[in-house]
Amino acid sequence: MKYRRLTQEQLEELHQEFITFLATQSITGDEWEKIKKEKPQVAEDELDIFSDLVWERVLTSAQYLEHISPQTMNLFELQEKQMSLISIIVGDDKIDITTSTGYQWLQKNLMDEEVKIFTANKSYGEDANADKFKLIETGASITKGDLYRYFDDLMEMGNEKNGF
Asked: Which top-level group of life is the source organism from (predicted)?
């Protein structure tokens, strides 16, 4: 297994896709029930294969990831050959940017000395999807990229004001 098995909840949400997956292997509903009872390891293997296929599709189409903790916001743009990172760190541990109050503070105080913003680019290793998956497994979520674009635009405007 390349990634990890989908959770029971995820499998339930993808029930119809799983039926289609079994059908591509000429496995009917009755045959699936028989496999689960008589060959549980085969059933487990099928779930693993299906999970990997779903993860591969999801990771390939993902464009942005976010990992937000009380004092750190890591925003990733997933490009073809590399990922770009905007990392925002709040040095005051009384401010929790995962709350609406803390996030509002951050928006108003981006230039505060307690706020550090870093950017970086990193090329993928041999397997871009494996690199993306590692970030998800450590707590990142796939997003539409609104926060990434917001902070990217703010930094571009700041650079223009500074003559860059």
From this structure: Bacteria
Amino acid code (one letter) for 88:
I
Contacts of 105 (CB under 8 A, 6+ apart): 95, 97
The structure tokens 């990392």 sit at: 87
Extract the tokens encoding 50.
Answer: 């299906």
3-state secondary structure of 147: helix
User: How far is Cα 96 from Cα 94, in angstroms, rounded to an integer?
Assistant: 6
Q: Which of 77, 73, 75, 16 is closest to 50 using CA atoms? A: 16
pLDDT tens digits for 105-142?
998 998 889 999 999 999 999 999 999 999 999 999 99
Bridge partner list, 159 = none
